[in-house]
């Protein structure tokens, strides 16, 4: 049984429903069947793009990075950009095993008393994003798990109204360099900055997204703000 240490620095849920999100120049192969996903959650298999040894390709990895040296099989869903080089769980993967994790958007929650209202955050033009990620391979007797984590940065002005962290979203001009093992670490760290608020749109969605059992297109439908909630976010 796989056990995860779930550290919700952000990101905790996201979507991948457009094929445009997996069209990357230089992609060698994508040997998986594609099905739209509207509520991707930790511990599930997620699409990651990286050079796994035979050129850049897409593979399904477990979301929750288990370091190769782990003795208990615990995984981490997020890695803070500020401490990538310091944390043993991520430092080697940051140097040697970086990946792109395609997404159309992600969810975050705002607490109101005992309730949490979900919001969906995406591009105003519906352009896909690539989250920066790291991956590793864990072996334990006859088990082999290839897993990944999404790197996070401090939140920008928009996301900060909900949470103090957000996924590290790379600019398209950085995709190749992020996957290139020759890229200088200083240049890599410069890529991991909060994504501009001006390139994001945010709106409230149904609480049905709170359950990982739900995975349908209506989860990203804009819903009306309930009485007593401020609409200042949109």
The CATH architecture classification is Alpha-Beta Complex
The CATH topology? hypothetical protein yedk fold
How would a textbook summarize the main sheet?
Answer: 8 strands, mixed
The backbone outline, from C-alpha atoms, is globular
- Given helix and strand content, the structural type is mainly beta
What's the CATH class label?
Alpha Beta
Mean pLDDT: 88
| Alpha carbon gyration radius | 17 Å
Tally of separate helices: 3
Number of discrete domains? 1
Series of H and E elements = EEEEEEHEEEEEEHHE
Describe this structure in words.
The chain has 234 residues and is mainly β. It has one domain: Alpha-Beta Complex (hypothetical protein yedk fold), CATH 3.90.1680. It is built from 3 helices and 13 strands; from the N terminus they run ββββββαββββββααβ. It has helices at residues 91-96, 175-179, 185-191, and strands at 14-16, 29-30, 37-40, 45-51, 56-63, 78-80, 98-103, 105-112, 115-122, 129-140, 143-154, 165-167, 201-204. Strands 2, 4, 5, 6, 7, 10, 11 and 12 form an 8-stranded mixed beta sheet that branches. The longest helix is centred in the C-terminal third of the chain and has 7 residues, at 185-191. It is globular and about 50 Å long.
Q: Could you name the key traits of this structure?
A:
single chain; 234 residues; hypothetical protein yedk fold; eight-stranded mixed sheet; five-stranded antiparallel sheet; 3 helices; 34% strand
């Amino acid at each position: 049984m796989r056990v995860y240490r779930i550290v919700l620095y952000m990101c905790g849920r996201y979507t991948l429903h457009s094929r445009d999100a997996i069209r990357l120049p230089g992609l060698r192969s994508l040997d998986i069947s594609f099905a739209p996903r509207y509520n991707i959650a930790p511990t599930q298999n997620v699409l990651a793009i990286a050079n796994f040894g035979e050129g850049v390709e897409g593979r399904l990895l477990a979301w929750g990075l288990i370091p190769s040296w782990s003795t208990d099989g615990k995984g981490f869903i997020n890695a803070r950009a500020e401490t990538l080089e310091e944390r043993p769980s991520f430092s080697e993967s940051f140097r040697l095993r970086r990946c792109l994790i395609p997404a159309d958007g992600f969810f975050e929650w705002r607490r109101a008393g005992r309730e949490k209202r979900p919001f969906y955050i995406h591009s105003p033009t519906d352009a896909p994003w690539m989250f920066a990620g790291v991956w590793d391979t864990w072996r334990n007797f006859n088990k082999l798990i290839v897993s990944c984590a999404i790197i996070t940065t401090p939140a920008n002005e928009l996301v900060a109204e909900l949470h103090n962290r957000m996924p590290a979203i790379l600019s398209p001009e950085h995709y190749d360099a992020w996957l290139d093992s020759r890229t200088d670490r200083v240049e890599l760290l410069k890529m991991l900055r909060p994504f501009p608020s001006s390139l994001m749109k945010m709106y409230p969605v149904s609480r049905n997204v709170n359950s990982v059992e739900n995975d349908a297109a209506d989860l990203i439908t804009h819903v009306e703000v309930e009485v007593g909630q401020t609409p200042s976010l949109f």
